[in-house]
Amino acid sequence: MTAPVTFWLALDDPDPGRVGDWIRRARALPRPPGVRLGFKVGLALYAAAGPAWVRALAEQDAVFLDLKFHDIPRTVERATAVAAGWGVELLTVHVSGGEAMCRAAAGAAAGHGLSVVGVTVLTSLGAEDLAALGWAGGPGAAVLHLAGLAARAGLDGVVLSPAEAPVVGTRLPQLRRVVPGIRLPGDAPGDQRRVGRPGPLVAAGVRDLVLGRALTAAPDWAAAWAAILEDVTAEIGEEG
């Protein structure tokens, strides 16, 4: 049976009141068979609301804790062990923290129902940004290299842009692919430079899509959600 498609709504706002309204509106959206809707908690909201808020949300909904741990292995191991007790489903670390750090995070999460996924190259970065950091091959080469490191370290998956998701799925099919930068035609890219539609990603086997301003900035949530579902439901139906 085909795995469900999970849309992770990015709660990228430091105002818990506004975020609470987003959560209520999101919970009211229709979800056809094969579609889940969870919530991604990033740094701004986490700094404002704290761990207790995350734990309370995880008691009711699927939660993706996107804190992008990047430190020495022991520190990341301890932080991951703490987060593993909060009931969240996904946790991010930066793959550029190194294989030992990634392996430590994977080990701390084992047995807790927590998947650790490695951030490869941020969707806000282009070839010139990577060149300034010493990566000469562009985003595609960097993502593939870091995804290979993530696989060797035992991470459950990687975070990558729509542009790299298909090739990583072909080369490293064991990795869960978490894809931000979801946009529909006509949507503004914002500060994300490597974006794409959800439908082709579902066709390429992606099952975790991060949905942010395409929904939260929409004047009509119901219409925006319907357009997003229309873009993916044909792909789900064709797969059975």
TrEMBL record:
InterPro entries documented for this protein: Aldolase_TIM (IPR013785), OMPdecase (IPR014732), OMPdecase_AS (IPR018089), OMPdeCOase_dom (IPR001754), RibuloseP-bd_barrel (IPR011060)
Domain Orotidine 5'-phosphate decarboxylase: 6-228
SUPFAM superfamilies xrefs: Ribulose-phoshate binding barrel (SSF51366)
Residues that, per the record, bind substrate: K40, T123, R183, Q192, G212, R213
Gene3D superfamilies in alphabetical order: Aldolase class I
GO terms under biological process: 'de novo' pyrimidine nucleobase biosynthetic process; 'de novo' UMP biosynthetic process
UniProt xrefs under SMART domains: OMPdecase
Annotated EC: 4.1.1.23
Catalytic residue list: D66 (for ompdecase activity), K68 (for ompdecase activity), D71 (for ompdecase activity)
Catalytically driven reaction(s): orotidine 5'-phosphate + H(+) = UMP + CO2
Keywords tagged on the record: Decarboxylase, Lyase, Pyrimidine biosynthesis
A GO CC term attached to the entry: cytosol
One annotated GO molecular function: orotidine-5'-phosphate decarboxylase activity
Pathway this chain belongs to: Pyrimidine metabolism; UMP biosynthesis via de novo pathway; UMP from orotate: step 2/2
PANTHER family in the cross-refs: OROTIDINE 5'-PHOSPHATE DECARBOXYLASE
Purpose of the protein: Catalyzes the decarboxylation of orotidine 5'-monophosphate (OMP) to uridine 5'-monophosphate (UMP).
Family (UniProt): Belongs to the OMP decarboxylase family.
Full protein name: Orotidine 5'-phosphate decarboxylase
Species the sequence originates in: Candidatus Hydrogenisulfobacillus filiaventi
